Amino acid sequence: MTRILIIEDEQDLAGLVEYNLRAAGFETESANTGAGGLARARANPPDLLLLDMMLPDIAGGEVLRMLKQDPELRKTSVIIVSAKGQESDRVQGLELGADDYVVKPFSVRELLLRVKAVLRRGDADEGPAQVLAAGDILLDTSRHQVRVKDVEVVLTALEFRLLRTLLERSDRVQTREVLLSDVWGIQAEIHTRTVDTHIKRLREKLGPAGDIIETVRGVGYKLSPP
Ligand code: CA
After folding, report:
1. How far is the CA of 33 from the centre of ligand 1 (A)?
2. Helix residue ranges, H only, 24-105
3. Fewer Cβ within 10 Å of end Cβ, the chain: N or C?
4. What fold does the segment set 3-125 form as a domain?
5. Res 120 pLDDT > 70
6. Which residues of the chain does CATH 3.40.50.2300 include?
7. pLDDT tens, 188-200?
8. pLDDT score of 102 more than 70
9. 42 CA to middle of ligand 1, Å?
10. What pTM, to 2 d.p., does this model score?
11. Is the pLDDT of residue 51 over 90?
């Protein structure tokens, strides 16, 4: 059964979300503080985490940063659920490694759709085992691992999906809109600058091997194997 952990200090909201997720067939757990949520996630890693940004103890962004630093939890899907709906908030949340961002107030139906979309994306990542290679980069889908000249490079779930998509479509230009839609699963809802920021970080992590990701001016990106 798919388990969802809700970190939310508004009891009524947490109760409503839990009720609806259970009715949709999910197993749920909730915590009303950041520290409590982290402890629960570590004790029993969930498949997906719904994370409020304004918590009484630790800021949601900090909780997310700690999750992404934890080897056991860094691949857990996270949806930020926040009252802060500015584009800069969304971009920041996604840059911290969240898979999606839902703004309060939201409809329960919309939240369920987002939850299912993020979980589907996670399943697709598992697909048939494949090893993709280009230049010094090796990406192993079954082990969810990237190596450059045999040294492991630790990527977030989003960076991994981005690199995998570029590798699978080697030599074909990918527009920012296509990447947003296929990697993030969203239709240009957030600024395409998010793609640029993630490409930049991915290149930095890959070091000189990352040079095979080319910028196609005014269009998008292309991975060109040597
Ligand atoms: Ca709150």
Report:
1. 9
2. 34-43, 60-69, 87-95
3. N
4. Rossmann fold (3.40.50)
5. yes
6. 3-125
7. 455 678 889 889 9
8. yes
9. 21
10. 0.68
11. yes
